[in-house]
Amino acid sequence: MADDIINRVANSSLKTIDLEDFYPLEKRTVIDIKPWLFNEFILKEKDFRNSLKNHNWVQYKNQYIALTCSTNAIIPSWAYMLIATYLTPFAKKTIVGNLQELENAIFQDILNNFDYKAYQNLPVIIKGCANKPIPETAYIQLIKNLQPIAKSIMFGEACSSVPLFKAAK
Predict the structure, then answer these.
(1) Do 64 and 118 share a domain, yes or no?
(2) Is residue 4 part of a domain?
(3) Run of H or E residues at 94
(4) How far apart are CA 130 and CA 128, in angstroms?
(5) Does one domain contain both 52 and 79?
(6) Can you give the pLDDT at residue 46?
(7) Model pLDDT for residues 76-123, shown as the tens digit of each residue
(8) Measured distance CA(62)–CA(43) in Å, rounded
(9) Domain count within the chain
(10) Are 130 and 20 in contact (CB under 8 A)?
(11) Is residue 127 in some structural domain?
(12) Mean of the per-residue pLDDT values for the chain?
């Protein structure tokens, strides 16, 4: 056949980044410290330390952890730091906050350690329509890191993308 179909996208220098490819599959867990408080409201140091000492920390092995307190108790910083000393040997990452803040922190780490050299002076498309919960802040951070080096940045699919940035000539 003389009129072969040519995939111009595959033959172009266009690079695609799909943040789903970087999504870590490890479990995300929220630890509410409320049960370790006296009447679920007051932190009594001795009781708190005993609760932590007797807790099964190995259950959090290779998990991402968000520490929170679901009551209006005033929690001193050292309390979260103490919990972190127990979690550090097991958890992949620990933050104080909710699941959304945890997801933001996970992707911040991923994108801070990402090698952007392969996208230098090239057109880049950031794939959309994620099936996994990619935080919006991850897309913003990706733009921030790509914009100084990419020739252009688009969002969506190669067949229907939204132009976001084009470097000045």
Answers:
(1) no
(2) no
(3) strand 93-96
(4) 6
(5) yes
(6) 97
(7) 999 999 999 999 999 999 999 999 999 999 999 999 999 999 999 999
(8) 28
(9) 2
(10) yes
(11) yes
(12) 92
